[in-house]
Amino acid sequence: MTEQPDSQPERKRIIRQRNLVLAIVLGAFVVLVFAISIVKMS
Amino acid sequence: MNQSVTLHPLPADWRDFFALTKPRVMSLVIFTGLCGMLAAPGHIHPVLGFTAILCIAIGAGGAAALNQWWEADLDAGMKRTAQRPIPAGRMDRTNARDFGVALSFASVLLMGLAIGWLAAGILAISILYYAVVYTVWLKPRTPQNIVIGGGAGAFPPVIGWVAVTGDITLMPVVLFAIIFFWTPPHFWALALFVQTDYAKVGIPMLPVVAGEKVTRRQILIYSILLLPLSLVPWWIGGAGAIYGVAAAALSSLFLVFAARVGMRTRSGEDDPMKPEKQLFGYSVLYLFVLFAALVADRLILGQGISL
Fold it and tell me: pTM of the entire structure?
């Protein structure tokens, strides 16, 4: 794995981006399940 | 005085996880799945249709991640794959495995709950087929790996069709067969111009094991078989004239490209392998246009009876 002694800012940036993408994916999943439920009930 | 520095690896970027799903392969999987869905007789609510395609994409991504987890050592030895996240050292193998398993389970579960368990079952089979039967079992053992393994890429239109109709009929089986017979010439064309890479890591691809002459003949045989097979949807009434004319033209041209590969021999070590590269490029275009013609036929002529 890429290693840098002074990699703390880079580490934080990567983790922040990953968290953001995960939040977007989970949010989209909730919206999708909601939409599927509405379609299935109608 | 020696100063010890503790080095911690950087965590994998989200782009590395995305790359693990082989997005370029996924685009073809999504496209054929969507075409299978649009060509099927019947109607599916757009939200459910979107969900079905999403599940096919996520399942394909999960299988691709498992493939890269298993083949990380082989990928490291090939120029074409050495920059993938695991061999390049940007991702831990365990993370890749867990990501692949999670995507695979999620796609099958969502497909089952939202669309139906038949479509979910076929999706599960396609994931296992690619990740286990092809990657673990066939690829490192037999030069016919591509032929049998081609079945894995042939499932998406069947899943798309079943998502709409709820059952397996003759038409989705024919669509499966078309991709099945298209796969060997497509991959063997690639294998001809990257065979030194495959030989280096010990993958028994046909050009490596049986030689170029046999491979070129096999490419030609499968391309000859593909021509009548691509016309079957028209003959059995599952598609109309738009598809029939397109299939005849596309498959004839495919045969021309395949003949140029099948009837030549490499001129030397520095041969640019132009006909092989052209066949590989055309084979991708072929599948896109053939399935697009099937959908256009269905939308314009209203074919697509429940065969």
Answer: 0.87
